[in-house]
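Bumping with the actual sequence this time:
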Amino acid sequence: MKKIFSIILAGLMMSASAFAVTTNEVCGRFDGMLNIGGNLYPNKSVYLIPGAVENTVTFVLPDFMYNAGKLGNIVLPNIPMDADGKLTLENATLYLDSISERATITVINGLEDGGVTYNSIITPAEAQVILSIAAPSLPQAIFVLFQGQAAAAQNYEMPNGGFEGAWTNYEPEGWHSFNTATGLMVDFIRGTDQFVQSSEVRPGSKGQHSVLLSSKFALSAKANGNCTNGQINAGSSTADDPVNNYNFSDPTNTGFNTPFNGRPDSLVFWAKYMPADRNAANEVNKARVNAVVTTAARYQDPEVEDYSAIKIGVAERNYTATASMGWQRLAVPFVYAEANNDKQPAYILTTFSTNMTPGGGSSYSTGQINKVNVLDTLYLDDVMMVYNRELSTFTIDQDAVSFDGRIATVSDNYCDDCAKFAAKGNGITAEPFIAFDAAHKCIFVYVVADDYAQSRRYNLYRIDFADSQTSDLAPIEDGVQQIVAGTMQVEKMMINGRLIIRRGNEYFTADGVRVQ
Protein backbone atom coordinates (compact mmCIF):
# COMPACT_ATOMS: atom_id res chain seq x y z
CA MET A 1 0.00 0.00 0.00
CA LYS A 2 2.80 2.37 0.86
CA LYS A 3 4.37 1.78 -2.54
CA ILE A 4 1.15 2.71 -4.32
CA PHE A 5 0.80 5.75 -2.09
CA SER A 6 4.35 6.86 -2.93
CA ILE A 7 3.74 6.41 -6.66
CA ILE A 8 0.75 8.72 -6.82
CA LEU A 9 2.34 11.35 -4.58
CA ALA A 10 5.61 11.57 -6.50
CA GLY A 11 6.20 15.07 -7.77
CA LEU A 12 3.56 16.91 -5.73
CA MET A 13 4.65 20.52 -5.48
CA MET A 14 1.65 22.48 -4.26
CA SER A 15 1.89 24.12 -0.85
CA ALA A 16 -0.34 26.22 1.35
CA SER A 17 -1.30 29.65 0.08
CA ALA A 18 0.62 32.66 1.34
CA PHE A 19 -2.68 34.55 1.51
CA ALA A 20 -5.89 33.71 3.29
CA VAL A 21 -8.58 32.35 1.00
CA THR A 22 -12.31 31.89 1.46
CA THR A 23 -14.57 29.13 0.19
CA ASN A 24 -16.20 31.59 -2.22
CA GLU A 25 -12.85 32.41 -3.79
CA VAL A 26 -11.69 28.86 -4.39
CA CYS A 27 -14.89 27.29 -5.68
CA GLY A 28 -15.35 26.54 -9.36
CA ARG A 29 -14.45 23.87 -11.88
CA PHE A 30 -10.90 22.53 -12.07
CA ASP A 31 -9.53 20.60 -15.04
CA GLY A 32 -6.52 18.33 -14.85
CA MET A 33 -5.15 14.86 -14.21
CA LEU A 34 -6.53 12.01 -12.13
CA ASN A 35 -4.02 9.55 -10.70
CA ILE A 36 -5.48 6.29 -9.41
CA GLY A 37 -2.88 4.00 -7.89
CA GLY A 38 -0.21 5.25 -10.28
CA ASN A 39 -2.41 5.07 -13.40
CA LEU A 40 -2.91 8.45 -15.07
CA TYR A 41 -6.20 9.69 -16.51
CA PRO A 42 -5.97 13.09 -18.25
CA ASN A 43 -8.76 15.53 -19.11
CA LYS A 44 -10.69 15.04 -15.89
CA SER A 45 -12.72 17.70 -14.13
CA VAL A 46 -13.92 18.22 -10.57
CA TYR A 47 -16.30 20.74 -9.05
CA LEU A 48 -15.75 22.60 -5.81
CA ILE A 49 -19.00 24.12 -4.54
CA PRO A 50 -19.61 26.08 -1.32
CA GLY A 51 -20.71 23.81 1.50
CA ALA A 52 -23.87 24.22 3.55
CA VAL A 53 -21.75 24.77 6.67
CA GLU A 54 -19.59 27.86 7.09
CA ASN A 55 -15.96 27.47 5.92
CA THR A 56 -16.63 24.22 4.10
CA VAL A 57 -16.70 23.11 0.48
CA THR A 58 -18.39 20.28 -1.36
CA PHE A 59 -16.09 18.21 -3.58
CA VAL A 60 -17.55 16.52 -6.67
CA LEU A 61 -15.67 14.01 -8.81
CA PRO A 62 -18.15 12.95 -11.53
CA ASP A 63 -18.25 9.50 -13.09
CA PHE A 64 -15.47 7.90 -11.06
CA MET A 65 -14.24 4.58 -12.45
CA TYR A 66 -11.82 1.97 -11.10
CA ASN A 67 -10.57 -1.07 -13.03
CA ALA A 68 -13.08 -0.29 -15.78
CA GLY A 69 -15.91 -0.42 -13.24
CA LYS A 70 -18.18 2.51 -12.53
CA LEU A 71 -18.26 3.66 -8.91
CA GLY A 72 -20.47 6.66 -9.70
CA ASN A 73 -20.13 10.25 -8.58
CA ILE A 74 -17.90 10.90 -5.60
CA VAL A 75 -19.66 13.75 -3.74
CA LEU A 76 -18.23 14.82 -0.39
CA PRO A 77 -20.27 17.59 1.26
CA ASN A 78 -19.16 20.13 3.85
CA ILE A 79 -15.41 19.48 3.90
CA PRO A 80 -13.77 21.86 6.40
CA MET A 81 -11.28 24.25 4.80
CA ASP A 82 -8.85 26.46 6.69
CA ALA A 83 -7.64 29.92 5.70
CA ASP A 84 -4.68 28.39 3.81
CA GLY A 85 -7.00 26.37 1.59
CA LYS A 86 -6.22 23.03 3.25
CA LEU A 87 -9.01 20.45 3.41
CA THR A 88 -9.66 18.01 6.23
CA LEU A 89 -12.16 15.15 6.17
CA GLU A 90 -11.56 11.93 8.05
CA ASN A 91 -13.34 8.61 7.51
CA ALA A 92 -16.42 9.95 5.78
CA THR A 93 -18.87 7.28 4.68
CA LEU A 94 -20.37 7.35 1.21
CA TYR A 95 -22.80 4.78 -0.11
CA LEU A 96 -21.99 3.93 -3.73
CA ASP A 97 -25.21 2.78 -5.32
CA SER A 98 -23.45 1.47 -8.43
CA ILE A 99 -21.66 -1.24 -6.43
CA SER A 100 -24.18 -1.44 -3.55
CA GLU A 101 -21.47 -0.83 -0.99
CA ARG A 102 -20.57 1.75 1.61
CA ALA A 103 -17.14 3.29 1.10
CA THR A 104 -14.97 5.04 3.64
CA ILE A 105 -13.31 8.13 2.18
CA THR A 106 -10.60 10.24 3.78
CA VAL A 107 -9.30 13.53 2.40
CA ILE A 108 -5.58 13.28 3.10
CA ASN A 109 -4.03 16.32 4.71
CA GLY A 110 -0.98 16.75 6.86
CA LEU A 111 0.20 13.18 6.29
CA GLU A 112 3.94 12.67 6.62
CA ASP A 113 5.62 10.03 4.48
CA GLY A 114 9.36 9.73 4.04
CA GLY A 115 9.95 13.11 5.62
CA VAL A 116 7.47 14.83 3.32
CA THR A 117 4.11 16.25 4.39
CA TYR A 118 1.31 15.83 1.88
CA ASN A 119 -1.76 18.09 1.85
CA SER A 120 -5.01 18.52 0.00
CA ILE A 121 -5.07 22.19 -0.93
CA ILE A 122 -7.20 24.42 -3.10
CA THR A 123 -6.54 27.99 -4.20
CA PRO A 124 -8.37 30.14 -6.74
CA ALA A 125 -5.91 28.91 -9.38
CA GLU A 126 -5.13 25.29 -8.46
CA ALA A 127 -6.54 22.21 -6.77
CA GLN A 128 -4.70 19.24 -5.28
CA VAL A 129 -6.95 16.72 -3.60
CA ILE A 130 -5.78 13.33 -2.27
CA LEU A 131 -8.37 10.72 -1.37
CA SER A 132 -8.19 7.32 0.25
CA ILE A 133 -11.19 5.16 -0.70
CA ALA A 134 -11.89 1.84 1.02
CA ALA A 135 -14.80 -0.50 0.37
CA PRO A 136 -15.47 -4.18 1.21
CA SER A 137 -15.06 -5.38 -2.38
CA LEU A 138 -11.75 -3.57 -2.85
CA PRO A 139 -8.65 -5.65 -1.99
CA GLN A 140 -7.00 -2.57 -0.51
CA ALA A 141 -7.62 1.14 -0.23
CA ILE A 142 -7.53 3.11 -3.46
CA PHE A 143 -5.40 6.23 -3.38
CA VAL A 144 -6.70 8.89 -5.72
CA LEU A 145 -4.98 12.14 -6.56
CA PHE A 146 -6.52 14.96 -8.54
CA GLN A 147 -4.28 17.82 -9.68
CA GLY A 148 -5.66 20.56 -11.85
CA GLN A 149 -6.00 24.23 -12.62
CA ALA A 150 -9.03 26.48 -12.54
CA ALA A 151 -10.97 25.94 -15.76
CA ALA A 152 -9.57 27.98 -18.62
CA ALA A 153 -11.57 31.02 -19.60
CA GLN A 154 -14.43 30.03 -21.90
CA ASN A 155 -17.48 31.89 -23.08
CA TYR A 156 -20.96 30.76 -22.08
CA GLU A 157 -22.65 34.16 -22.34
CA MET A 158 -23.37 36.80 -24.97
CA PRO A 159 -20.58 39.39 -24.70
CA ASN A 160 -21.85 42.90 -23.92
CA GLY A 161 -25.48 41.84 -23.97
CA GLY A 162 -26.44 45.21 -22.53
CA PHE A 163 -24.79 47.17 -25.37
CA GLU A 164 -22.85 49.22 -22.83
CA GLY A 165 -19.40 50.79 -23.03
CA ALA A 166 -17.66 52.89 -25.62
CA TRP A 167 -18.58 52.55 -29.30
CA THR A 168 -16.01 52.10 -32.06
CA ASN A 169 -16.92 52.77 -35.70
CA TYR A 170 -20.43 53.54 -34.44
CA GLU A 171 -20.76 50.07 -32.95
CA PRO A 172 -20.60 48.70 -29.38
CA GLU A 173 -18.08 46.03 -28.45
CA GLY A 174 -19.15 42.62 -29.72
CA TRP A 175 -21.92 43.83 -32.06
CA HIS A 176 -21.98 44.97 -35.68
CA SER A 177 -24.26 46.42 -38.31
CA PHE A 178 -23.98 47.98 -41.76
CA ASN A 179 -21.21 50.41 -40.85
CA THR A 180 -18.68 47.55 -40.83
CA ALA A 181 -20.38 45.45 -43.48
CA THR A 182 -18.60 43.99 -46.46
CA GLY A 183 -19.86 43.42 -50.02
CA LEU A 184 -20.55 45.35 -53.21
CA MET A 185 -23.46 47.37 -51.82
CA VAL A 186 -21.87 48.67 -48.62
CA ASP A 187 -21.47 52.21 -49.95
CA PHE A 188 -25.23 52.42 -50.49
CA ILE A 189 -26.16 50.79 -47.19
CA ARG A 190 -23.51 52.11 -44.83
CA GLY A 191 -24.57 54.84 -42.44
CA THR A 192 -24.98 55.73 -38.79
CA ASP A 193 -28.76 56.03 -38.63
CA GLN A 194 -29.69 52.32 -38.67
CA PHE A 195 -27.79 51.31 -35.55
CA VAL A 196 -27.44 53.85 -32.74
CA GLN A 197 -26.89 53.91 -29.00
CA SER A 198 -29.96 54.80 -26.98
CA SER A 199 -30.50 55.85 -23.39
CA GLU A 200 -33.94 54.21 -23.36
CA VAL A 201 -33.47 51.00 -21.38
CA ARG A 202 -35.78 48.12 -20.50
CA PRO A 203 -37.73 48.13 -17.20
CA GLY A 204 -35.54 47.41 -14.19
CA SER A 205 -32.27 47.66 -16.10
CA LYS A 206 -29.10 48.46 -14.19
CA GLY A 207 -27.46 49.54 -17.44
CA GLN A 208 -27.39 52.93 -19.07
CA HIS A 209 -27.98 52.08 -22.72
CA SER A 210 -29.81 49.96 -25.24
CA VAL A 211 -29.38 49.82 -29.00
CA LEU A 212 -31.86 51.12 -31.58
CA LEU A 213 -32.18 49.43 -34.99
CA SER A 214 -34.04 51.09 -37.85
CA SER A 215 -34.91 50.02 -41.37
CA LYS A 216 -33.72 52.15 -44.28
CA PHE A 217 -34.63 52.90 -47.88
CA ALA A 218 -31.75 52.54 -50.34
CA LEU A 219 -31.88 52.21 -54.13
CA SER A 220 -35.71 52.20 -53.94
CA ALA A 221 -35.57 49.12 -51.71
CA LYS A 222 -36.09 48.65 -48.01
CA ALA A 223 -33.22 47.27 -45.92
CA ASN A 224 -34.08 45.83 -42.55
CA GLY A 225 -32.40 47.09 -39.44
CA ASN A 226 -29.75 44.45 -38.77
CA CYS A 227 -27.66 43.69 -35.69
CA THR A 228 -25.27 40.74 -35.40
CA ASN A 229 -22.26 39.50 -33.50
CA GLY A 230 -20.89 38.31 -36.84
CA GLN A 231 -20.45 40.45 -39.97
CA ILE A 232 -22.95 41.59 -42.59
CA ASN A 233 -22.31 40.88 -46.23
CA ALA A 234 -24.29 43.33 -48.39
CA GLY A 235 -23.71 42.19 -51.93
CA SER A 236 -27.02 42.77 -53.73
CA SER A 237 -29.66 45.46 -54.11
CA THR A 238 -32.27 42.69 -53.97
CA ALA A 239 -33.05 42.40 -50.28
CA ASP A 240 -34.03 38.72 -50.31
CA ASP A 241 -30.93 37.48 -52.18
CA PRO A 242 -29.45 34.96 -49.70
CA VAL A 243 -26.44 34.26 -51.92
CA ASN A 244 -25.20 37.83 -51.60
CA ASN A 245 -26.98 39.28 -48.57
CA TYR A 246 -26.36 37.50 -45.29
CA ASN A 247 -24.76 37.65 -41.86
CA PHE A 248 -21.86 35.31 -41.30
CA SER A 249 -19.43 34.00 -38.73
CA ASP A 250 -16.03 32.63 -39.72
CA PRO A 251 -13.28 31.41 -37.33
CA THR A 252 -10.77 33.34 -39.47
CA ASN A 253 -12.87 36.51 -39.48
CA THR A 254 -11.06 38.23 -36.60
CA GLY A 255 -13.25 40.65 -34.69
CA PHE A 256 -16.45 39.42 -36.32
CA ASN A 257 -17.00 36.08 -34.61
CA THR A 258 -17.92 35.09 -31.08
CA PRO A 259 -16.29 32.04 -29.49
CA PHE A 260 -18.94 30.19 -27.50
CA ASN A 261 -18.71 26.98 -25.47
CA GLY A 262 -22.11 26.40 -23.91
CA ARG A 263 -25.37 24.59 -24.53
CA PRO A 264 -27.83 27.06 -23.01
CA ASP A 265 -31.51 26.30 -22.60
CA SER A 266 -32.74 29.59 -23.98
CA LEU A 267 -31.76 32.99 -25.31
CA VAL A 268 -33.40 35.82 -23.38
CA PHE A 269 -33.58 39.45 -24.42
CA TRP A 270 -35.69 42.58 -24.08
CA ALA A 271 -37.21 44.20 -27.15
CA LYS A 272 -39.27 47.29 -27.89
CA TYR A 273 -40.50 46.72 -31.41
CA MET A 274 -42.36 49.47 -33.27
CA PRO A 275 -43.34 48.63 -36.87
CA ALA A 276 -43.89 51.50 -39.24
CA ASP A 277 -47.68 51.37 -39.11
CA ARG A 278 -47.72 50.83 -35.35
CA ASN A 279 -50.07 47.90 -35.91
CA ALA A 280 -49.13 44.82 -33.89
CA ALA A 281 -51.87 42.78 -35.57
CA ASN A 282 -50.54 43.31 -39.10
CA GLU A 283 -49.23 39.90 -40.19
CA VAL A 284 -46.21 41.40 -41.95
CA ASN A 285 -45.05 43.08 -38.75
CA LYS A 286 -42.83 40.52 -37.08
CA ALA A 287 -39.26 41.10 -35.97
CA ARG A 288 -36.78 38.24 -35.98
CA VAL A 289 -34.06 36.77 -33.80
CA ASN A 290 -31.89 33.81 -34.75
CA ALA A 291 -28.99 32.38 -32.74
CA VAL A 292 -27.03 29.37 -33.98
CA VAL A 293 -24.37 27.54 -31.97
CA THR A 294 -21.86 25.88 -34.31
CA THR A 295 -18.64 23.94 -34.40
CA ALA A 296 -15.45 25.75 -35.47
CA ALA A 297 -16.67 26.28 -39.02
CA ARG A 298 -18.00 29.05 -41.22
CA TYR A 299 -21.75 29.64 -41.00
CA GLN A 300 -24.13 32.16 -42.56
CA ASP A 301 -27.71 33.33 -42.07
CA PRO A 302 -29.75 32.94 -44.30
CA GLU A 303 -28.36 29.54 -45.21
CA VAL A 304 -27.45 28.68 -48.79
CA GLU A 305 -26.26 25.12 -48.26
CA ASP A 306 -26.65 22.22 -45.85
CA TYR A 307 -25.06 23.23 -42.54
CA SER A 308 -26.55 20.38 -40.50
CA ALA A 309 -23.15 18.85 -39.80
CA ILE A 310 -21.93 21.97 -37.97
CA LYS A 311 -25.14 23.25 -36.34
CA ILE A 312 -25.32 22.21 -32.69
CA GLY A 313 -28.23 24.29 -31.42
CA VAL A 314 -30.67 26.87 -32.81
CA ALA A 315 -32.86 29.48 -31.09
CA GLU A 316 -35.15 31.23 -33.57
CA ARG A 317 -38.33 33.26 -33.27
CA ASN A 318 -40.40 35.75 -35.24
CA TYR A 319 -42.26 38.00 -32.79
CA THR A 320 -44.83 40.77 -32.87
CA ALA A 321 -44.90 44.12 -31.12
CA THR A 322 -46.96 44.60 -27.98
CA ALA A 323 -50.28 46.38 -28.39
CA SER A 324 -48.79 49.43 -26.66
CA MET A 325 -45.52 49.28 -28.63
CA GLY A 326 -43.72 48.77 -25.30
CA TRP A 327 -40.89 46.67 -23.91
CA GLN A 328 -41.26 42.89 -23.70
CA ARG A 329 -39.01 40.17 -22.32
CA LEU A 330 -38.65 37.29 -24.76
CA ALA A 331 -37.22 33.83 -24.06
CA VAL A 332 -36.40 31.68 -27.08
CA PRO A 333 -35.55 28.02 -26.38
CA PHE A 334 -32.62 26.34 -28.09
CA VAL A 335 -33.33 23.20 -30.10
CA TYR A 336 -30.36 20.85 -30.29
CA ALA A 337 -29.48 18.39 -33.03
CA GLU A 338 -29.12 14.95 -31.44
CA ALA A 339 -26.77 13.88 -34.23
CA ASN A 340 -24.28 16.52 -33.06
CA ASN A 341 -24.44 15.83 -29.32
CA ASP A 342 -20.84 14.64 -29.34
CA LYS A 343 -19.55 17.79 -31.02
CA GLN A 344 -18.08 20.69 -29.08
CA PRO A 345 -19.68 24.14 -29.36
CA ALA A 346 -17.15 26.65 -30.65
CA TYR A 347 -18.97 29.73 -32.01
CA ILE A 348 -22.35 31.41 -32.01
CA LEU A 349 -23.89 33.62 -34.69
CA THR A 350 -26.74 35.80 -33.45
CA THR A 351 -28.90 38.03 -35.63
CA PHE A 352 -31.58 40.57 -34.72
CA SER A 353 -33.66 42.10 -37.49
CA THR A 354 -36.51 44.61 -37.65
CA ASN A 355 -38.45 42.16 -39.80
CA MET A 356 -38.64 38.42 -40.37
CA THR A 357 -38.59 38.94 -44.15
CA PRO A 358 -35.61 40.58 -45.88
CA GLY A 359 -36.93 43.91 -47.16
CA GLY A 360 -40.28 43.23 -45.49
CA GLY A 361 -42.44 45.03 -43.00
CA SER A 362 -44.94 47.85 -43.23
CA SER A 363 -43.95 51.26 -44.56
CA TYR A 364 -47.10 53.36 -44.54
CA SER A 365 -49.63 54.89 -42.16
CA THR A 366 -52.86 53.15 -41.19
CA GLY A 367 -54.32 56.30 -39.70
CA GLN A 368 -52.91 55.78 -36.23
CA ILE A 369 -49.99 57.94 -37.24
CA ASN A 370 -49.99 60.68 -39.82
CA LYS A 371 -46.81 59.85 -41.71
CA VAL A 372 -45.82 58.03 -44.89
CA ASN A 373 -42.81 55.68 -45.24
CA VAL A 374 -42.23 55.58 -41.50
CA LEU A 375 -39.43 53.12 -40.72
CA ASP A 376 -39.57 50.00 -38.58
CA THR A 377 -37.64 50.44 -35.34
CA LEU A 378 -36.43 47.98 -32.72
CA TYR A 379 -34.82 48.66 -29.36
CA LEU A 380 -32.77 45.80 -27.87
CA ASP A 381 -31.42 45.43 -24.35
CA ASP A 382 -29.88 42.83 -22.01
CA VAL A 383 -29.32 39.86 -24.30
CA MET A 384 -28.35 36.85 -22.19
CA MET A 385 -28.20 33.08 -22.08
CA VAL A 386 -30.21 31.07 -19.57
CA TYR A 387 -28.94 27.75 -18.24
CA ASN A 388 -31.68 25.94 -16.34
CA ARG A 389 -30.33 24.35 -13.19
CA GLU A 390 -33.34 23.48 -11.10
CA LEU A 391 -34.13 20.06 -9.68
CA SER A 392 -37.10 18.73 -11.64
CA THR A 393 -37.53 15.42 -9.79
CA PHE A 394 -36.11 13.63 -6.77
CA THR A 395 -37.25 10.12 -6.00
CA ILE A 396 -36.74 7.59 -3.22
CA ASP A 397 -37.40 4.06 -4.42
CA GLN A 398 -39.07 5.64 -7.47
CA ASP A 399 -41.50 7.59 -5.28
CA ALA A 400 -41.46 11.33 -5.97
CA VAL A 401 -40.46 13.61 -3.10
CA SER A 402 -42.26 16.94 -2.76
CA PHE A 403 -40.30 20.06 -1.88
CA ASP A 404 -41.41 23.07 0.10
CA GLY A 405 -39.21 25.56 -1.67
CA ARG A 406 -35.74 24.04 -1.64
CA ILE A 407 -36.26 21.69 1.30
CA ALA A 408 -38.14 18.38 1.44
CA THR A 409 -39.00 16.43 4.58
CA VAL A 410 -39.68 12.70 4.68
CA SER A 411 -40.97 10.66 7.61
CA ASP A 412 -38.35 7.90 7.52
CA ASN A 413 -35.08 7.97 9.42
CA TYR A 414 -31.88 8.73 7.51
CA CYS A 415 -30.47 5.72 5.71
CA ASP A 416 -28.29 6.14 2.65
CA ASP A 417 -28.05 2.45 1.72
CA CYS A 418 -31.58 1.18 2.25
CA ALA A 419 -33.24 3.02 -0.66
CA LYS A 420 -32.65 4.01 -4.25
CA PHE A 421 -32.19 7.75 -4.64
CA ALA A 422 -32.42 9.46 -8.05
CA ALA A 423 -32.37 13.10 -9.15
CA LYS A 424 -33.01 14.81 -12.45
CA GLY A 425 -32.32 18.39 -13.49
CA ASN A 426 -34.54 20.48 -15.77
CA GLY A 427 -31.94 21.85 -18.18
CA ILE A 428 -30.06 20.67 -21.25
CA THR A 429 -26.83 20.39 -19.24
CA ALA A 430 -28.24 20.54 -15.69
CA GLU A 431 -26.48 17.84 -13.69
CA PRO A 432 -27.65 16.97 -10.17
CA PHE A 433 -25.12 15.61 -7.69
CA ILE A 434 -26.50 13.79 -4.65
CA ALA A 435 -24.48 14.31 -1.47
CA PHE A 436 -25.09 12.08 1.54
CA ASP A 437 -24.35 13.91 4.79
CA ALA A 438 -24.25 11.24 7.50
CA ALA A 439 -23.15 13.77 10.13
CA HIS A 440 -26.36 15.79 9.72
CA LYS A 441 -28.46 12.82 8.59
CA CYS A 442 -29.71 14.59 5.50
CA ILE A 443 -29.16 14.63 1.77
CA PHE A 444 -28.08 17.58 -0.34
CA VAL A 445 -28.57 17.89 -4.08
CA TYR A 446 -26.33 20.31 -5.94
CA VAL A 447 -27.44 21.16 -9.49
CA VAL A 448 -24.94 22.73 -11.87
CA ALA A 449 -25.01 23.42 -15.60
CA ASP A 450 -22.11 23.57 -18.05
CA ASP A 451 -21.58 27.29 -17.43
CA TYR A 452 -20.57 26.73 -13.79
CA ALA A 453 -16.90 27.28 -14.59
CA GLN A 454 -17.69 30.82 -15.72
CA SER A 455 -20.78 31.85 -13.77
CA ARG A 456 -20.25 29.84 -10.57
CA ARG A 457 -24.00 29.55 -10.28
CA TYR A 458 -25.70 26.49 -8.86
CA ASN A 459 -28.85 25.49 -7.04
CA LEU A 460 -28.91 23.70 -3.72
CA TYR A 461 -31.67 21.45 -2.31
CA ARG A 462 -31.90 19.51 0.95
CA ILE A 463 -33.87 16.43 1.97
CA ASP A 464 -34.45 16.13 5.71
CA PHE A 465 -35.39 12.92 7.51
CA ALA A 466 -37.19 12.31 10.80
CA ASP A 467 -33.89 12.13 12.68
CA SER A 468 -32.02 14.85 10.74
CA GLN A 469 -29.86 17.26 12.75
CA THR A 470 -29.56 20.42 10.68
CA SER A 471 -29.53 23.25 13.21
CA ASP A 472 -26.03 24.43 12.24
CA LEU A 473 -26.72 24.42 8.49
CA ALA A 474 -27.13 27.62 6.53
CA PRO A 475 -30.72 28.30 5.43
CA ILE A 476 -31.63 27.49 1.86
CA GLU A 477 -33.68 30.37 0.54
CA ASP A 478 -36.65 29.36 -1.55
CA GLY A 479 -36.40 30.25 -5.21
CA VAL A 480 -33.01 31.97 -4.95
CA GLN A 481 -30.22 30.72 -7.12
CA GLN A 482 -26.96 30.47 -5.24
CA ILE A 483 -24.06 32.54 -6.56
CA VAL A 484 -20.51 32.05 -5.35
CA ALA A 485 -19.02 35.36 -6.34
CA GLY A 486 -20.76 38.68 -5.83
CA THR A 487 -24.04 39.71 -4.30
CA MET A 488 -27.38 38.55 -5.62
CA GLN A 489 -29.38 41.50 -6.95
CA VAL A 490 -33.05 41.24 -6.02
CA GLU A 491 -35.63 43.70 -7.28
CA LYS A 492 -39.35 43.88 -7.95
CA MET A 493 -41.02 45.24 -11.06
CA MET A 494 -44.35 45.27 -12.84
CA ILE A 495 -44.32 43.70 -16.33
CA ASN A 496 -47.56 43.52 -18.31
CA GLY A 497 -49.52 43.96 -15.09
CA ARG A 498 -47.72 41.16 -13.21
CA LEU A 499 -45.39 41.48 -10.24
CA ILE A 500 -42.05 39.99 -11.31
CA ILE A 501 -39.11 39.45 -8.96
CA ARG A 502 -35.63 39.58 -10.44
CA ARG A 503 -32.89 37.62 -8.71
CA GLY A 504 -29.56 37.94 -10.47
CA ASN A 505 -30.26 37.25 -14.15
CA GLU A 506 -33.42 35.25 -13.56
CA TYR A 507 -37.07 36.17 -13.02
CA PHE A 508 -39.81 34.73 -10.81
CA THR A 509 -43.49 35.38 -10.27
CA ALA A 510 -44.64 36.49 -6.84
CA ASP A 511 -45.36 32.86 -5.89
CA GLY A 512 -41.86 31.69 -6.85
CA VAL A 513 -42.53 30.25 -10.31
CA ARG A 514 -39.58 30.82 -12.62
CA VAL A 515 -40.34 32.92 -15.70
CA GLN A 516 -38.64 31.75 -18.88
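The C-alpha coordinates above came from a reply further down the thread. The chain has four domains: 2-150, 167-386, 391-474, 486-516.
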